[in-house]
Task: inverse folding
């Protein structure tokens, strides 16, 4: 599938749309999900344009997963959570809604997962969680 550079995450990466960021470097951005499935739901995206994990060059995938681990550790410390669901949907058939590869970090159990990308979260609450995660990084 061709990469659409007008997708929401490409626009966030270019600074055209706002995001509640928790981490950024030259290769990766991590920010809060606006429709969280649990408190602290965070997304980690490589800056490399790729629709799915299968399209992402292996070195970018390897680096992104290192940052996923770093953010997960900070979430554990900052939010006092035990289990974190790491979810990655590749392809619309899998339920992917934003066509820029991303990893979901959801502090919950697989048995508690709610409806996907369904309901806007409380932005002030999300911002407060982001501050806690940032402080733990
Ligand atoms: P997926 O269905 O795996 O592609 O997940 C896309 C995720 O992006 C969903 O969990 C949405 O809630 C989330 N999302 C959509 N738009 C935004 C946005 N502007 N900022 C942050 N998260 C978003």
Result:
């Amino acid at each position: 599938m061709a990469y659409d550079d007008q997708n929401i995450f490409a626009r966030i990466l270019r600074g055209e749309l706002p995001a509640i960021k928790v981490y950024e470097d030259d290769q990766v951005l991590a920010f809060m999900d606006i429709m969280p499935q649990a408190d602290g739901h965070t997304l980690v995206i490589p800056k490399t344009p790729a629709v799915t994990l299968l399209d992402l060059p292996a070195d970018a995938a390897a680096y992104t997963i290192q940052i996923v681990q770093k953010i997960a550790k900070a979430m554990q410390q900052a939010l006092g959570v035990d289990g974190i669901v790491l979810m990655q949907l590749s392809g619309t058939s899998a339920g992917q809604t934003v066509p820029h590869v991303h990893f979901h970090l959801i502090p919950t159990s697989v048995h508690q997962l709610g409806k996907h990308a369904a309901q806007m979260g409380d932005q002030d609450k999300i911002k407060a969680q982001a501050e806690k995660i940032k402080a733990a990084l």
Notes: The radius of gyration is 14 Å. The chain has one domain: 8-136. The chain has three helices and five strands.
